Amino acid sequence: MFEVLISFLLSFRVYFRTRSDNQLEILALRHQFVVLQRKTPKPQTETDGSTFMGMAVSMLASMAFCAFDRETDNSRRLAPSRVRWYWTWKVRHGHVGRPSVAKETRELIRTLSRNNSIWGAPRIRSELLKLGIQISEASVAKYMVRHRKPPSQTWRTFLKNHAAQLASVDFFTVPTALFQVLFVFIVMRHDRRRIVHFNVTAHPTAEWTAHQILEAFPFDLAPKYLLRDRDRIYGHTFREQVAV
Domain containing 168: what range? Predict the structure, then answer.
């Protein structure tokens, strides 16, 4: 007991010593620890024991990973049910989301939509705001009356009805024996699917292309619709000359 008391009292010497004395004592203790490590031999582990420990550690790691993966899979599977349960509880306890639209407001929206078929949701909402009714555009669109629209004709029907008034123009290239490239311009009518005009040039321009249209349809034989691609050669100059 006396020795413990002496050791306890001597421990207070640290507070009265200088920093250099403490550093010297730490260096001396470290030197003694290194000498002790050199004298004490390291424990030798048998091969069978190390192999067994390695197998045990790997098995424990794989079991922990499987348990974590199973828990993650269960959480992923239970997530939708938890969300559904949460919102069910919230609604049943009076915590509803968007406030419902009054019945009079819904009837007014349907009346305005029925009597004004060309009005959209923004126009009806503005009329309701004039009456002091605060409502969003999405809610107005939800309660509007859906007007039946006449069915529009398909592309096949359009071609069938206007085939006599349709013509198509296009370019394609032809390589020559002297490794030159010639541009062939063709004009085709859709009523009989026949080529009414074609010409060849090495340097096509907008003026030359417009002149080919005039040669293909002289006088008043030009079709009402001309189908073409978006090539730059059918630009402003081409459209002006064809319109004339």
Answer: 160-243
Tens place of pLDDT for every residue, the chain, 244 residues?
Answer: 566 566 656 665 655 666 677 677 777 777 777 777 776 666 555 555 556 566 666 665 665 555 545 555 555 565 677 777 777 777 666 655 667 788 899 999 999 988 988 888 999 999 999 989 888 898 899 899 887 777 777 878 877 888 888 899 999 999 998 889 999 999 998 888 889 999 999 999 999 999 998 889 887 777 888 889 988 899 888 888 877 6
In whole angstroms, what is the distance from residue 162 CA to residue 167 CA? 10
Could you tell me if residue 215 is inside a domain?
yes
Q: How far is CA 46 from CA 43, 50, 53, 60, 230, in A?
A: 10, 6, 11, 21, 83
Indicate whether this model's pTM tops 0.70: no
Residue 113 lies in a domain: yes
For 203-224, the DSSP string reads S--HHHHHHHHHHHS-TT---S
